[in-house]
Amino acid sequence: MGDCHADDDGNEAVPIPDEAPSAAAEAELPRADVEPLEELCRRSAALRQSVYAHMKELGKQ
């Protein structure tokens, strides 16, 4: 299991899985629900990499 975080409204922390869902788990979801989630995951990963790169740059200064 990956990172956990609580949201800004004080809701309980939710585990974020490190791996993509299995094909069986994806088969249970309607395709219309999966595609936006896949895009969100891609954008989230890109943002995370950007933040880490920026933090690394700041650490060099």
Kindly describe this structure.
With 61 residues, the protein is mostly helical. It has a domain at 21-61. Helices cover 59% and strands 7% of the residues. It has two helices and two strands; from the N terminus they run ββαα. The chain has helices at residues 23-28, 31-60, and strands at 4-5, 14-15. The protein has a two-stranded antiparallel ribbon with strand order 1-2. The protein starts with a strand and ends with a helix.
Q: How would you sum up this structure in a few lines?
A:
59% of the residues lie in helices and 7% in strands. It is mainly α and 61 residues long.
Unreliable runs, pLDDT <50, ≥5 residues?
none
Proportion of helical residues? 55-70%
Rg (CA only): 15 Å
Fraction of residues in β-strands: 5-15%
- Strand runs, count: 2
Largest sheet report: 2 strands, antiparallel
Q: How is the largest sheet built, in terms of strand order? A: 1-2
Structural class: mainly alpha
What is the overall shape?
A: elongated
